[in-house]
Every structure is written in structure tokens, then in C-alpha cells.
Amino acid sequence: MAQEDVFKKIVSHCKEYGYVFPSSDIYDGLGAVYDYGQMGVELKNNIKKYWWDSMVLLHENIVGIDSAIFMHPTIWKASGHVDAFNDPLIDNKDSKKRYRADVLIEDQLAKYDEKINKEVEKARKRFGESFDEAQFRATNGRVLENQNKRDALHERFAKALNDGNLEELRQIILDEEIVCPISGTRNWTEVRQFNLMFSTEMGSTSDGAMKVYLRPETAQGIFVNYLNVQKTGRMKIPFGIAQIGKAFRNEIVARQFIFRMREFEQMEMQFFVRPGEELTWFQSWKEQRLKWHKALGLGDTKYRYHDHDKLAHYANAATDIEFEMPFGFKEVEGIHSRTDFDLSQHEKYCGKNIKYFDPELNESYTPYVVETSIGVDRMFLSIVCSSYCEEKLENGETRVVLRLPAALAPVKLAVMPLVKKDGLPEKAREIINQLKFQFNCQYDEKDSIGKRYRRQDAIGTPYCVTVDHQTLEDNCVTIRHRDSMEQERVSISELSNIIADKVSITSLLKKLI
């Protein structure tokens, strides 16, 4: 099945089982805005808890804050967002659709990668165990031809981005014969810059109103509070400040479900270090963050680093952790060495001394910052996409199962009476009342037991417990494991211990130590 069709099924599955709904659905939705349903909000909260605990619980020198969405407008002038927070956009005159020029070129680079990988996979099947991939890539004519084209395009693209050369970006699109996905034509406009910040007014009268912005990132709330946190928490460098919160960007090219939205949530940590030590910490956090992702068990080969071709105005090093979505490798987290740009700018614009006094060096300086920034919604999407599975069973039937990491699953345990009589529902309720203080449990008595298993598979519930007539005699139940579908008879008193270790966030955190 084509990956595009798989992705459509995943989007449909998310709506059908209460994970994600189009916002304002009864009014035909609102572009690139989504609501999280009853299952989605549980998964999202579990993702946030895993991240928060991995930062704040596991590190004595990292604390959290929650800053306001509305901030003084000068903050965005100081940070460079007013003048430089732009996307290069290009329109197709035939379809009237607008695209990000850089994304069109990145997709073209991905096509070259895809061609190369197809040649490699064909050769792998042909030669079997004797296949030498490195030698094949270095000698095969078609691979070398595509690699040379890719390298030349990449070099040209990187230079155009770093130079801010919009004309060159358009010329690349023309030279590479990139067509509009809708019209199939190459009738392109010039490339223009578009600022992504939403603005509104704050004040009781139109004359006295002040123009303010919905924050496009959560980082600035940390920077303007860093000295408050440092002093009140008696923090010593190096130390970090973590935050989870909403951010807003007026994305013109919002697409791919919840991957690129206008209202989204970020999990960011700014780590303050001595000048000159930032690149060492940058490397350390790169490794720590990739380890955090891999601990989920979604597949190590699904991740890769992507170093930035164009560094932001504030950075001296930057990389993305990319995850293999159904529509290709895409960024889920960024790690940036932001130097002292933000704090220096805020000191300049606010006119106050916000330097850190280092008691060990007996001097004051502006700290350098290493940032880790992860999109909650993109993380959510990567987990759902990698967990969705259509599995052919031995009896010829097909089941749809979400193989979610057990610690993140919305519902940990479903308890089912075999029939709705003979005291079985009451016994099932008794079990739930014992376990609901530890786990998110669901009671399910509708339909046959087989249909109930399928329903729980589809929402990703790791364990199902069936109460039958024998339970009333021996106080044992049948526990079914989602992934293997294996069943075993266990004592009700053992349920808590059997399930707890597998479904707790602690089980993930232990992998990070």
C-alpha cells in the first residue's frame, strides 16, 4: 500500500477512535487547527509527562516555569522575530496555491535520496548476504549520477538560503523543473518573504491599544525570566529551565495533518552554560535527546540527525532529530546552540543588567544557551504513525492495532465481563475500583468479547482483562496482551504488579540513566 494511502488511514483512524478531530468540525473545520479527543488528550499528556519528568526529575539542575502567552511587544523586536521571522513563499499561477520555496526544494532533494535508496535495495535483494552497500554506492553508475545531482542541488540550495537570495531559490525551482502538485505546471511567481506572527491589540480603547503578538515560540518567556529563576532558585551554571506551552504561527503552507499547524504546543528547555563550553554541551544534549526518543522502542532506524544548511541568526550550531513519517523523514526536535544572542539582545533593549555572576570565576558574564525544542504535536504524530498496524491473522482476518508504547497509551487496562449477568459486571467493576487509582482503566461490556478485543486493539490498550464465571470461584482472570494476543490466567491480586512495571513512565525513565 502506498504511504500516502497509509497516512490517510491514520488520519481517519485518529478521528474514528477519539484521538484528533478537525477543530470546529460542525462548521466544516478551520484550516490547520485541530482538537484532541478523549484518547488524544491522554496520549498527549503522557508524552508531556515523559518529557517533563526526563528533564526536571532526572536533572537536579533543571527546573520548570510556565510563562504567559502575551508578552511585551519589544521582546519580539529584541529577539528578531519582528524583522526576521519569515518564510520564503512562492505561488503557482495556475492552481493559485502557495508553497514554501525551501520545502519544495527539500522535497526535490528527498526524491534524489529515494532514487538512490531504490537502487540500493534492488541490489541488496539481487546479491543477498554478499552485498557490500558501501562499495555499491561508490561504484554504481546510476547511484553516482543521482548522488552528484543531489550534492550539486544541496550546495546551491544551502548557499541561496544563507545568502537570503530569493531569486536564486526561484531559479533552482525552475532549473529542477519542480511542478505544482495540484496543477502539474511550472508557472511560478517570484519568491516573497512572509512574517508568521499573529498580532492583536491589548487595551480598553482603540486610541490606547498596544499591538501585541501571540508568541511564535516559548523560548523567549524563559530568557526574560532566567535571572528571576536563577536568583530565587539559587541556581549555578550550568542550569536549565524547561517549559511546555502553546505557540502560534500563521503558517501559509499548513499541511500533513497535525505536522504543521497554526496553533501548536512546544516542549522547550534552555540550558545556560559558560561561554566557550556551549559546543560541548550542544553535543551532549544531541546525544541525550536522541536517547530519549529511542527509549520509546519505535525503531532506531527511524531516527536521524539533520544538520542545518542555514543557521538561524542566533545560532553557531544546529541540528534536527528527524523521524521517518509516512511522508518522509521530518523534523520532530531541534537542538540549537543559541550563543548569547537572546540574553544580549534583551539586555540591550530593556536597558537593565541581566548578566550572571559566576562565584567560581568571580566575574559576571552573559551566559551562552543550548536549546532543545520538541513539538508535542509532531511527537504525537510520529508515535501514532509508527504504532499503526494492519495485521493479518492466522484465521484470515485482519485486525487494526495501535502498538503504542505501553507507558504512553491512553488506556492501560480494559476490564470486560464475559456476559452482562450472573454477577460478572459487578466483579469487573470491583477490579476497576481497585486499579483506577494507579491506571487509566476502561470498563467494556458491549458486543462479543472478540469485538471488544478489536476495539481495544484499535485504541492501543496494552492489556485486556476478562472476568468469567470461573473468576467468581477462584478469583482469577484472563489477561490478554495487545501485541502478541497471548492470554494467561492470573490472580486478581497479581494484576497490579504485572501491569505496573510495563505501563509506568518510570519504566521509560530508567532507560535514560
From TrEMBL:
Keywords: Aminoacyl-tRNA synthetase, ATP-binding, Cytoplasm, Ligase, Nucleotide-binding, Protein biosynthesis. Its main location: cytoplasm. Its EC number is 6.1.1.14. GO terms for molecular function: ligase activity. InterPro entries: aa-tRNA-synt_IIb, aa-tRNA-synth_II, aa-tRNA-synth_II/BPL/LPL, Anticodon-bd, Anticodon-bd_dom_sf, Gly-tRNA_synthase/POLG2, Gly_tRNA_ligase_bac, GlyRS-like_core. It comes from the Bacteria. The keyword Methyltransferase does not apply. Pfam families: HGTP_anticodon (PF03129), tRNA-synt_2b (PF00587). Substrate binds at residues 100, 217, 264-268, 371-375. It is found in: Cytoplasm. It catalyses: tRNA(Gly) + glycine + ATP = glycyl-tRNA(Gly) + AMP + diphosphate. ATP binds at residues 249-251, 259-264, 331-332, 375-378. Residues 150-405 form the Aminoacyl-transfer RNA synthetases class-II family profile domain. Belongs to the class-II aminoacyl-tRNA synthetase family. Homodimer. Catalyzes the attachment of glycine to tRNA(Gly). This is Glycine--tRNA ligase.
